[in-house]
Amino acid sequence: MTAGLAQLRPVYVVGAGLHPYQRPSDTPYTAMGVHAVRAALADAGLDWRDIESAYAGTATTAMGISRLMYRHLGSTGIPMAQVENASASGSTAFRQACIEVAAGLSDVSIAVGVDKPLQLSSPQRAAGVRDLAGSRVAPFTHFALLAERYIHDYGATAEQFALVAVKNSRNGALNPNAQRRKPKTLNEVLAPPLISGRLTRLQCCPIGEGAAAAIVASDEAIHRLGLNPARAVRVLSSASRSETVYDGENFDAALTPRYCRSSARRGRPDARRP
After folding, report:
1. Which pTM value belongs to this model?
2. In this structure, are residues 5 and 179 in contact, taking their beta carbons and an 8 Å threshold?
């Protein structure tokens, strides 16, 4: 039996920082990442020299971004690693930082997620390959299919799906770091154009860029560095799954909710995995 985070050495988030999410711009990803790191350090009350290991998650930016970002903060010799895991790149970097502290390999670790849209100098173009998938694979179409399957199985309506975007826009209006900061009405969300299936433009993620950073630490580090334990938030759980061989299902929309359910069960703080 293997243990989850709740059964290992306690890990706490002691600081977090963001670079505002925005439309694609000339801002280098290094500047966005360093901005988020400095905000997290200030939030925690730490210096860059207190960080013992670093992880950077990116899905579309470049190879080896860690050193190019962190050199602007000072060369301290810490181990660093880059994570590419599609939409889960940032959360996977955070998970790795938590595992490192929980395992006792370091006392203070930072996870940074940063991305800019692919430019004309993307690795695929540099290799002489425009795109292996072309327009045949698109995230919004995948989610439109999921929506149609949910509507078919449970009788939901397009208006009910649109209300999720209404709620999200209301939350975004309260967040100075959000890319979309104007609340939208149901009619505005439902207005054309349709992007895929029943999903409208305001139900799809905008193309943008930004960065986020989180610092995690052990109990020992919190006391040694004089941090305020009342501001530390313990990380009780983290789960990561991938596909398994499925039994007769041939439609991804049926599989995705199953993976979500199994991941949630696996991530329960009291769960032990075989």
Report:
1. 0.84
2. no
